[in-house]
Amino acid sequence: MRARLTYFALAGVLVVYFVLVGSRGVLLIRQGTLLTVVFGIAVLVLPGIGAWFLWHTTRFARRANRLARELEAEGGLPVDELKRTPSGRIDRASADEVFAKRRAETEERPRDWRSWFRLAVAYYDARDTPRARKAMQRAIALHAGEQS
To answer: Which residues cross the membrane (predicted)?
Structure first.
């Protein structure tokens, strides 16, 4: 719940920032000189890119959470079997061991979104966020294919 509140607070701050920057871009364009119009357009591009990124990230998180709720309802969420250091961090060897299991499970059932979801969690636990995101995108795509 805390992560969700933090996300929405930061998203709200970003939206306010986009509005403020966008208004500055409009003011520059209204000046009417070639230089200010060019700068104004450039300034308007930045909030556009930021808004697109925020929308894309939010959509990804919502879809991943939907899969997590569905998997939880089925009783298929991965069990936390990771060893932790005294400070609470995940032990790297333990994460690698669990990852090997999840990878084998996904290789056995490459069309099962559930195995891809669990593989994404294993990637994340192994601190490989880019691959975790790609595996989760694969799980989302496979799940969307089942729903169609």
So the answer is: 7-27, 33-55
- Whether residues 6 and 53 fall in one domain: yes
Number of domains in the chain: 2
Provide the residue range defining the domain that includes 64. Answer: 2-74
Query: Which 3 state secondary structure label does DSSP give 84?
Result: strand
**Residue 21 identity:** V
Whole-number Å distance between alpha carbons of 17 and 25: 12
Contact 116, 103 (CB under 8 A): no
Phi, then psi, of 32 in degrees rounded to 5? 85, -5
pLDDT per residue as tens digits for the range 108-125: 999 999 999 999 999 998
Cα separation of 139 and 106, whole Å? 11
Q: Are 123 and 131 in contact (CB under 8 A)?
A: yes
